[in-house]
Design a protein that fits this description.
The complex is a heterodimer. By secondary structure, chain A is mainly α. Chain A has a single domain, classed as ABC transporter involved in vitamin B12 uptake, BtuC (Orthogonal Bundle), CATH 1.10.3470. Chain A is built from 14 helices and 4 strands. In chain A, the strands form 2 sheets. Chain A has a two-stranded antiparallel ribbon with strand order 1-4. In chain A, strand 2 and strand 3 form a beta hairpin. In chain A, helix 3 packs parallel to helix 8. Chain B is globular, with a radius of gyration of 19 Å. Chain B has a single domain, classed as 3-Layer(aba) Sandwich (Rossmann fold). Chain B is an alpha/beta fold. In chain B, the strands form 3 sheets. A 6-stranded mixed beta sheet of chain B has the order 6-9-10-3-11-12, with helices on both faces. Classes of the chains: A mainly alpha, B alpha/beta. The site of adenosine-5'-diphosphate has 11 residues of chain B, from strand 2 and helix 1. The site of magnesium ion has 2 residues of chain B, from helix 1. Chain A: It is a multi-pass membrane protein. Chain A: GO terms for molecular function: transmembrane transporter activity. Chain A: Pfam families: BPD_transp_2.
Chain lengths: 335, 263
């Protein structure tokens, strides 16, 4: 019953492994790369990577906590970017139409994913593998058909540029970082403080019992798929506005990278366990490794090795901590 | 004593061409434990799935408080106060005791969109509810359900059902996977639920466990009620004999010996 903070209590939290992993990675790069990557310019480089990844990783992580998976995010990023660029760049319509169309397609693909998952017995990995390829095909096919090109330029000015695709604080930090921090705070509230968060964990623990307990599991599943697809479209849309162009390719790296961030962040692959803070740490860890390597003497190709080792290490550590949490029983009279 | 809370009248169930239940008529009364005995495959699980709204009877009637009342879904059954606790009790092993206790009906504090889950209150109520069932070792609502022993998990699930107003408690083989001490625990809690006036349907194939808590017994053989009797009307040997449906007495003796060694 006590709410005193103890080392044991911290280690039993889902984000324990991610926090330790992050500290280890920071120490590693501080030793081999000096402190440059912790100075403003260095920090901007990995914060930008973390922000774009994190906006997608958290809803993906929530889906994984609820027992599902969404790999179609890899196609939704270019889809969001290309929708914005074609509508507001190629056709020259107002940017807000492009913005809402991109988000609207995100909602639509999320609804389709969610509907297929709850109406068929097909696992969400397969459903979203299908929509990954389908959406990739649509993006490539339509873009070439409409623009006769695989890259579309887009010039944005005014508030839309400032809100979605600009640099802030002296010109190195993407505005996405602010979105990411704000969204993370919102997710933390909804998942860990509002009563609804409990439903996501219950679904991942046992979907049938959750439904029998009165949780609208199907509606919640749909919502989570909409959230992940729309978040990915949002990131793509923002990137198109930031870089003033969109490409049909790219985006696939988000699939593995966000799953890595989520798993390093302590989310159990089979669902029912994890935390937003953990995913947040996992995302930063991933970004620090991929960007920190530039500040060391190592060739950047080694960063994949580090990420691989990190992933395995984090999973093993998370398993250990989860076992500790499971077997934890307070001793009478102790602390 | 009183009128039955839940009754099945001439219930049949078939899955396509397979007839699983034949003409089942059973009653459960408040403050009474009905033990459903039967070998593996006798149809016990199918029967309780009908009582809990998972399956619909192919024919026959379910009555609640003497009135015909179909149970089209598990939701409908739980709204009628029928709660099912499965073999492993806690279904959310990685959730805390407090959170799993209140899944779907989370207590909140604060107002409007800033309502937050009231962890302290949830934990306190959950812990109090299990402790009232005599499980005093559970005193921290932040512990994960998966860390509890099998008996404690069963107790938690039963306490939860009772807390949320269950009138009929269906326990599907609650003691099958438990050791002697844990099973005793669960049996004590079954007695406590009965003392509080719940109707309990207790499914088991361990005669010893049934005899420890049962007021009323029904033996199911190949989907039909082969015997229906009250406490004290039959000896353990007779019950075992019935369950085995005509196996030789010698092999029964051996079986009883081993069961007694287990229990
Ligand atoms: N959904 C189903 N479809 C077809 N047959 C089933 C189904 N459920 C149960 N049965 C059959 O009904 C019989 C009784 O099963 P069950 O109720 O699980 O028995 P018990 O719980 O007493 O061991 C078994 O022969 C089983 O194969
Ligand atoms: Mg069974």
């Amino acid at each position: 019953m006590s709410s005193t903070i103890s080392i044991g209590g911290l280690l039993r939290r889902p984000e324990a492994g991610a926090a330790l992993g992050l500290v280890a990675v920071l120490i590693f790069f501080a030793i081999f790369g000096g402190m440059t990557f912790l100075k403003p310019a260095g920090m901007a480089s990995w914060l930008n990577v973390a922000a774009n990844l994190g906006v997608i990783a958290i809803p993906l992580g929530l889906l994984m906590i609820s027992g599902e998976l969404d790999i179609s995010v890899g196609a939704m990023v270019p889809f969001g970017a290309m929708t914005t660029a074609v509508i507001s760049g190629h056709y020259g319509m107002p940017i807000w139409i492009g913005v809402f169309a991109a988000l609207g397609f995100g909602v639509l693909v999320g609804l389709i994913n969610g509907f297929l998952v709850i109406r068929t017995a097909v696992p969400s990995l397969i459903v979203t593998l299908g929509s990954l390829f389908a959406v990739q095909g649509i993006v490539l096919g339509l873009t070439v058909l409409i623009t006769k090109s695989t890259s579309v330029a887009l010039a944005t000015e005014g508030p839309a540029k400032a809100i979605f695709g600009d640099f802030v604080m002296g010109g190195q930090l993407q505005v996405m970082v602010l979105w990411w921090l704000g969204l993370t705070a919102l997710y933390i509230f909804f998942v860990h403080f509002s009563p609804f968060g409990n439903w996501i964990f219950a679904m991942g623990g046992d979907k049938i019992s959750a439904r029998n307990a009165g949780i609208p599991t199907e509606r919640l599943t749909m919502m989570l798929f909409v959230l992940s697809a729309t978040s990915a479209a949002f990131v793509g849309m923002c990137q198109a506005i930031l870089y003033n162009s969109a490409q049909v390719a790219g985006g696939q790296s988000f699939i593995f990278n966000s799953i890595i961030a989520v798993v390093v962040g302590g989310v159990l692959l089979t669902g029912g366990f994890g935390s937003v803070v953990g995913i947040f740490f996992g995302t930063i860890t991933f970004a620090v490794v991929t960007q920190g390597i530039y500040y060391t003497d190592f060739d950047r190709n080694w960063s994949s090795l580090i990420i691989g080792v990190l992933l395995l290490g984090a999973v093993l550590m998370n398993n250990t901590f989860r076992k500790m949490a499971l077997s934890y029983a307070p001793k009478k009279g102790g602390k | 004593m009183s009128n039955p809370i839940l009754a099945l009248r001439a219930v049949n169930k078939s899955f396509g061409p397979i007839d699983v239940l034949h003409d089942i008529t059973l009653e459960v009364k408040a403050g009474e434990v009905l033990c459903l005995l039967g070998d593996n495959g006798a149809g016990k699980s199918t029967l309780i799935k009908i009582m809990s709204g998972v399956h619909q009877p192919s024919s026959g009637v379910i009555e609640i408080d003497g009135v015909a009342c179909p149970l089209p879904s598990p939701r409908a059954a739980s709204e009628q106060g029928i709660a099912t606790v499965h073999q492993f009790g806690g279904t959310f092993p990685l959730m805390s005791i407090g959170r799993s206790f209140f899944v779907g009906v989370e207590p909140t504090k604060g107002w409007g969109p800033f309502k937050v889950y009231d962890r302290r209150r949830a934990n306190a109520i959950a812990v109090k509810a299990v402790q009232e069932f005599g499980i005093t070792r559970i005193d921290d609502g932040d512990r994960l359900v998966g860390g509890l022993s099998g008996g404690e998990r069963q107790s938690l699930a039963i306490a939860r059902a009772v807390h949320f107003g269950a009138r009929v408690l269906i326990l599907d083989e609650p003691t099958a996977a438990l050791g002697v001490k844990q099973a005793t625990h669960v049996l004590r809690i079954v007695n406590e639920a009965k003392r509080r006036g719940l109707a309990v349907v207790f499914i088991t194939h361990q005669v010893m466990h049934a005899m420890a808590v049962g007021d009323h017994f029904a033996v199911l053989i190949r989907g039909a009620v082969a015997a229906d009797f009250k406490k004290g009307e039959k000896t353990r040997e007779e019950i075992t004999d019935l369950m085995a449906g005509g196996a030789s007495m010698a092999s029964l003796e051996a079986e009883i010996e081993s069961q007694m060694a287990q229990a």
